[in-house]
Amino acid sequence: MLVSFSTKAALVFLLTGVATLPSESEQYRRQVLASSDLKPTELSRQYTARSFAPLWLHSDPDLVFGFIGDGYRRLQVKLLTIRPDAQQPGRYTVTGKAKVGTNITGFQGTFVLLHVRENKARPRAADDMPTKAVKAGIALVEYELREPEGQPTAGVFRGVLCTQWYQDRHGKLYYNDLQNYSDNYENNQFVGTWQSYKTGQVKRCNWGDYRMPNSGDFDQGAGEFSPQEKYWANGWQAFKGGGYQRDKAWWK
Questions:
Q1: Rounded to the nearest 10 degrees, how much is the dihedral formed by the CA atoms of 221, 223, 225, 230?
Q2: N or C: which end of the chain has fewer CB within 10 A?
Q3: Where are the chain's structural domains?
Q4: What would the pLDDT profile of 121-143 be if each residue is shown by its tens digit?
Q5: Tell me: the pLDDT tens digits for 214-250?
Q6: CA dihedral 112, 115, 116, 117 (to 10 degrees)
Q7: Alpha-carbon dihedral 246, 247, 249, 252, rounded to 10 degrees
Q8: What is the DSSP letter of 18?
């Protein structure tokens, strides 16, 4: 009997508590969970019946920055639909599109909830302004997003996603943008790989809101995202001169 990757990943998760991840993704997962800002109690079981989908769809595509390969070639990603799986709590079906250069490819796949942890500190807004948030934390998710086979530049994205959330007194979850005024603010951070169907080649491939995770010397911006000049030729020409020419709605 043939077993799909997503089914095998789910089985591994049920047995071990975490699916097999690319090495950089696994290192990132461990790093997030080791943060002293988080309470140690694992809460994923309590949150599987609740939907994080609105938090992932919240991302402004103009502020989602990504790269593929060692040369930090520009990757743009737009998630289009995310639906909880009624048969498998904590699992979501996902569709979206990715763009590298002039090549735009659709994808579909899954998110599987791995971890949910709460922050030790109570959420705070800018200048201690009143906020409806009563608690905050992170969710770690394993993702697999497959482009259509048969295309020469198609492949599969795999890795782990970290999302910051907060909750109001009614238990509703929100995308945590309470600190988006800070210089190093980031959210919905994807750390993983892309593997070509045709050649089997594996490339580093990370993206996220406002900043890119694990991007080395690429981002020189202090107050906001800003690629180094030596990388402009790899798809980042829109950022020349410190500005940013926003792309049209390329995913439509």
A1: -10
A2: N
A3: 64-242
A4: 999 887 777 789 999 999 999 99
A5: 998 888 777 778 888 899 999 998 887 666 777 789 9
A6: -160
A7: -170
A8: S
The residue among 192, 193, 104, 109 whose CA lies nearest residue 153 is 104
- Claim: this prediction has a pTM higher than 0.85: yes
Annotate 99-126 with b (16+ C-beta within 10 A) or e (fewer). bbeeeeebbebbbbbbbbbbbeeebeee
Tokens of 45: 């079981």
**CA 147 to centroid of chain Cα atoms:** 17
Q: Phi, psi at residue 160, to the nearest 5°?
A: -130, 145
Strand spans (E) along 176-252? 187-196, 202-209
- Count of alpha carbons within 13 angstroms of residue 184, beta-carbon side: 1
* Secondary structure E strands in the chain: 64-68, 73-84, 91-100, 103-118, 135-146, 155-167, 173-175, 187-196, 202-209
Whole-number Cα distances in Å, 18 to 10, 82, 117, 169? 9, 21, 15, 30
d(CA 95, CA 81): 5
